Amino acid sequence: MLILRPEQPTPLVSQIVEGLRGLIGAQKLKADTKLPSIRAFAAAHGVSVFTVVEAYDRLVAQGLLVSRANAGFFVKRRSEESAVGTASVPRADPRFDARWYLQQIFENRNLPLKPGCGWLPHDWLFEDGMRRSLRHLASEGSDIGGYGLPFGHMALRMATAEALSEQQIVVEAAQVLLTQGSSQALDLVARRLLKPGDRVLVDDPGYPNLMFMLRFLGVEIVGVPRTPTGYDMPALEALLAVHHPKAFFTQPRLQSPTCSMASLPQLVQLLQLAQAHDFTLVENDIYAEMDASMRPSLASLGQLRRVVYVGSYSKTISPNIRVGYVVAQPELLDELAQLKMISGLTSSDITERLAFGTVTDGRWRKHLKALRERLAQAHGSVARRLSGLGFELFHEPAAGMYLWARHPDITDSAELSRRAATQGIMLGPGQLFLVNPHPTGWLRFNVAFSEDERLWRFLERSIEERPAD
Predict the structure, then answer these.
(1) Exposed/middle/buried for 231, CB within 10 Å: 0-12, 13-18, 19+?
(2) The pLDDT of residue 99
(3) Residue 249: helix, strand or coil by DSSP?
């Protein structure tokens, strides 16, 4: 009943999952039907047992199969409502599960096409520099046992402070705390500044993982609308008057998902508002190295007065190098270091040494220059293709990783993303990035992953096949 086509770009795991989902939805596989064993299915279809294991596991997670001890896998018995065809496809919003989808992005990162992901292709990264740093680390005879330091590897802290000084952020190495990526930095800052019931501002659309983390802390989040030129300042002032937030977590530069950039007057006004309304600005500047322009930041203008600055090396070295940092006033930094020790002891000295060797490599600056040029070229190419298909572009920055776009004939990007996954394509549905998720046509495109013709054929077909109203 199920035919697999290895020659197609869709991964075999996805073919199995979608094939069985279709058979279950069409009632060709009824409730309590036993499926072939993993080895029997693998032998019958000429695939590996690992492929079948992953496919069956996904179907169990989706509530379509159930595993019974010493018996095998069976079609799960469900209510009448879920058994009549709608079970074959996940329902659209408002029950779109953003946390589940975000998990799938990482668990299925080996899908052939990843225009919705949040990292760079491996061949865009500084692989030669990482290899040289690894070889040096292995040959220098340093101790690779034990723990790192609470504040992180001192040489990298010093290099970070020096790099920040070039951006007019004047700090000492003692004001730099290394973390396990920028996500840990944001988590530490949130846990130090906020308590359950507090209100906090975030960009809308914005960073979904930050929103999940803040909600987990029991914080009420309020979205500040982004515009192509940064912030909707009248809306921000109105929100401040009503909500009296403790902090504003924001990305002024190359913001995800819109890639918009706040202007200098807006940054100055933000600092004034933070002073007037007594809240802290948490500046997430993880895309700074992708910006060819020397732009001011909240941290450079305020010199850490009411500003906590977060950065990362993971975006430009490698996502696997989980090295971020937070820069703040000394008293606050000491408290963040204590929280870091409580939750995870120290960060990895090995990865911090690896990052240090990479960013002090003589070819690092040349790599960053080439990366910025490559991203600018990809921005132009992808923007033209999207416009040619009738997409509206929110902003065209010619820098950073993303384009935020929507098509008038695509009203639910979550549904489009589900269909794309069956074709081996990972999209970035707009609902994932909204403070209050709802059906939307907006999509985030990672330009570094968006030049494959298979993506454009899928989008063109999806637009052409849209049913007439």
Answers:
(1) buried
(2) 61
(3) strand
Structure confidence at residue 122 (pLDDT): 85
176-179 vs 324-327, strand pairing mode = antiparallel
Retrieve residue 110's tokens: 């080996």
Low-confidence spans in the chain with pLDDT less than 70: 1, 9, 69, 78-111, 140-146, 466-469
Q: How many angstroms separate the CA atoms of 133 and 135, rounded?
A: 5
Separation in Å, CA 112 to CA 50, 101, 446, 461: 18, 17, 14, 18
Measured CA to CA, the distance from residue 1 to residue 173 in angstroms comes to 64
pLDDT for 310 equals 96
Please report the pLDDT score of residue 82 as a whole number: 34
Q: For residue 80, what pLDDT is reported?
A: 33
Q: ω before 94 within 30° of 0 (cis)?
A: yes
Which burial class, exposed, middle or buried, applies to 243 when counting CB atoms under 10 A from its CB (0-12, 13-18, 19+)?
middle
* Cα separation, 261 vs 203, whole angstroms: 12
Closest CA to 199 of 298, 272, 310, 280: 280
pLDDT tens by residue, 150-201: 888 899 999 999 999 999 999 999 999 999 889 999 999 999 999 999 999 9
Q: What is the pLDDT of residue 150?
A: 84
Instruction: Say whether pTM exceeds 0.85.
Output: no
Query: Dihedral sign, CA of 204, 379, 169, 171?
Result: positive
DSSP 436: S
The angle formed by the CA atoms of residues 204, 207 and 213, to the nearest 5 degrees, is 110
Exposed, middle or buried by CB within 10 Å (0-12, 13-18, 19+), for 9? Answer: middle
How far apart CA 406 and CA 445 sit, in angstroms, is 10
DSSP 8-state class, residue 180: S
H helices of 125-204, in order, are: 127-139, 154-165, 181-193
Angle CA(187)–CA(193)–CA(198) in degrees, nearest 5? 100
Q: What are phi and psi of 303, to 5 degrees?
A: 50, 45
